[in-house]
Amino acid sequence: MTGSRTGGIPHQPSSGNGHTGKHTYGVPLSRLGNAPGWANGSTGFGDNSHRGVYGEEFIRMLATAANLDVTRKERDRVGVDWQLGYAGRKGTRRFPAIEAQVKCTSSPDIHGEHIHYPLKAKNYNLLAGPDYDLPRFLFLVLAPADAFTWAHATRDRLLLAHAAYWMCLHDQDLLENERTGTRTVHVPRANLLTVDSLHDLFAEDYRNMLVAS
User: Fold this and answer.
1) Number of domains in the chain
2) How many CB atoms lie within 10 A of CB 4?
3) Residue 49 belongs to what H/E stretch?
4) 32 pLDDT above the threshold of 60
5) Order of strands across the sheet with 163-167?
6) What is the pLDDT of residues 105-142, one digit of tens each?
7) 139-154 per-position pLDDT tens digit
8) Which is nearest to 126 in space by CA: 74, 170, 166, 187?
9) Which SS3 state, helix, strand or coil, does residue 172 take?
10) If you placed Cys at 30, which of 35, 71, 161, 177 could pair as Cys (CB 3.0 to 4.6 Å)?
11) Residue 171 region, left (φ>0) first, then alpha (ψ -120 to 50), else beta?
C-alpha cells in the first residue's frame, strides 16, 4: 500500500490544466452590483462560518448519493465532523464505519498534483497516527470564492461547486506540541472524492493501519 503523501488508495486520474500556485474561484457578484435582493438581509452570507457549513453539507450530499449512513458529531471534541457507515460487501466486515474531519477553502494553494493545506497542530494530531478505533480522514472541499455560485439548480440537476478531496494521515507521526503552530499537509489531487472512492475508503487497508483494529 502506498503512503498518504503519494495518494494512498485508490488513485484516480487528476483533471484540470496542471496550473500551479494559488487559485481563486470567481468574483463575488456583490462587487459587480448583481447581488439578489435577499442577500442584503442574509446575515453571514458567504463568510467563513457559512463556507464551513457548505463544506460539511457538500460531503453529506455526496455520501448520501453513495447510499452511506451519515451521522453528524454534534460536539466537536475529537476532531470528527461526520461518521460514515457502510453495509459492507459480501465476504467483508459487516457494517464498517469511518470518520471524517471536513475543511473547506476558497483559496486552495495548488502545487502540481497536490493541494497544500495548513492544519492547526491540534487538528493535525486528531487525524495523524494509528491510535484510533475507526479509520479517519481529512476531507478538503474546494468552494468558489463567490458564494452565489456554490449551487446551481435546474429542472434536471443540482450542481454543487467545486470538488472535494481526501487524505489519510494514519502513517504520520503526531506533533509534539499541539498547542501552537500549524502543519501543512499535501492533499493529492488524485484523491478526488466521488461516490465510488467514498466506498473504497472502507477498505481493510485503512483499518489495518490502526493499533486498535
Assistant:
1) 1
2) 24
3) helix 48-65
4) no
5) 69-72, 82-85, 97-105, 136-142, 163-167
6) 998 999 999 999 999 999 999 999 999 999 999 999 99
7) 999 999 988 889 889 9
8) 170
9) coil
10) 35
11) alpha
Q: Among all chains, which residue has been given the C-alpha cell 461518521? A: 83
Closest Cα partner for 166 from 1, 4, 16? 4
Cα(105)–Cα(30) distance, rounded to whole angstroms?
19
Q: The C-alpha cell of 177 is what?
A: 506540541
Query: Domain holding 71: CATH number?
Result: 3.40.1350.10
Its pTM stands at 0.79
Give a yes or no: residue 36 inside a domain. Answer: yes
> Which residue in 147, 184, 195 sits closest to 51, CA to CA?
147
Is 40 a member of any domain?
yes
Residue 154 inside a domain? The answer is: yes
- Domain for residue 59, yes or no? yes
pLDDT-above-90 percentage for the chain: 50
Q: Which domain holds residue 42?
A: 24-207
C-alpha cell at 65: 448519493
